[in-house]
Amino acid sequence: MSEETNSNQENIKTETLGDPAGIEFFPERRGDKISRSWFRVLFLGEGRDNLQKVKCERQIHNVVSESPLIKLMMDALKSSGCGIDLNRHISCEPCSQVVTGGYDAEMNQIVVCQNTATSKAAVHGALAHEMVHMYDFCRAHIDFTNVDHLLCTEIRAANLMHCSFMSAMVMGTASLIRIKKQHQECVKRKALASVVAVRDLTEEEAKDAMDRVFTKCYNDLEPLGRRLRRNSNDIARIYRERYLYGYGHS
Ligand SMILES: [Zn+2]
Q1: What separation in Å is there between the alpha carbon of 133 and the centre of ligand 1?
Q2: What is the average per-residue pLDDT within 174-189?
Q3: b/e per residue 42-64 (b: at least 16 CB within 10 A)
Q4: Looking at the annotation, which residues are catalytic?
Q5: Average pLDDT value for residue range 104-113
Q6: How many A from CA of 98 to the centre of ligand 1?
Q7: Cβ–Cβ contacts within 10 Å for residue 27, how many?
Q8: In the prediction, which pLDDT does 48 show?
Q9: Angle between helices 68-79 and 51-66 (to 10 degrees)
Q10: Widest CA span of the chain, in angstroms?
Q11: Which parts of the chain span the membrane according to its record (predicted)?
Q12: What is the pTM (predicted TM-score) of this model?
């Protein structure tokens, strides 16, 4: 199994940011409608007609309570003054077939796509990725209409999450010498795919933006402090060491 194969699969189901350009991917994102409380759905058994949604909400509940990486991101958000209330900030919704999640900056809400993110791994991947966008928006108030800003947060999400954590598992027999280069290529490819999915950019415009922001954004490892690497205990270590980065005082 090569990284290439995995990356191509990822590109088919990418995600998008909930800005006006991406709104068509999220049919329930209209006006100021907010999805009803999913705790109510989960615990009172309502919405029997909507098993997909209930299943998605259950997966989120499991991932949030089990994943050290998600816990770390939630601690980091809280430390930055942007604590997550699951009811308010995470929503399961039906989406276009081409996305698995999104971040709605206007609502400060993460969307997990109940029809495309159906496995626990997919829900985990979507949450981890979107939490980087949420963190960047909290920290820097990024302008989602600015291509450089958008590309930067996608580079960071790919760098911190997808390329190190997701595809590292299937990178297989790549030689050590090639890993660094492959990793950078993975980040560039994934970030470009995410941006092109929501922006009407020419290849040249996208590459120009990449040249402008790649080095700076690739080297910005907040809030994880270091990239997650395969065959390591990085995730557990990051969670244990979170106090070093000013998170999780408890
Ligand atoms: Zn993204």
Answers
A1: 7
A2: 76
A3: beeeebeeeebbbebbbbbbebb
A4: 130
A5: 90
A6: 13
A7: 11
A8: 40
A9: 80
A10: 54
A11: none
A12: 0.77
